[in-house]
Amino acid sequence: EVQLVESGGGLVQPGGSLRLSCAASGFTFDDYAMSWVRQAPGKGLEWVSAISWNGGSTYYAESMKGRFTISRDNAKNTVYLQMNSLKPEDTAVYYCNVRMYWGQGTQVTVSS
Prior knowledge:
The chain is mainly beta. 0% of the residues lie in helices and 52% in strands. Strands 2, 4, 5, 6, 9, 10 and 11 form a 7-stranded mixed sheet that branches. A 4-stranded antiparallel sheet has the order 1-3-8-7, with no helix packed on it. The model has no long low-confidence stretch (mean pLDDT 97).
């Protein structure tokens, strides 16, 4: 059974940082690219970032470039999202995704 468990969300002030983690199990982790997707209150899903199976290639939505960094540790079956210079518009539930599988999400709230 595929499981994706996100953690690391919370309340942070504008300009602050958070590091999200997604622990994966139930599949061969280093066979797959991984993605982060978010959903802001009252809005649809928004793709955030993706990373190739070995971490050699990373991709970002335009509004996240230079602020967010995706990485993975295949020995730990975990993918990370380092988020810096956070803005109120980054407030959302952040989900980890592989193929058709999703985690439960972790809430990120950026507010003073």
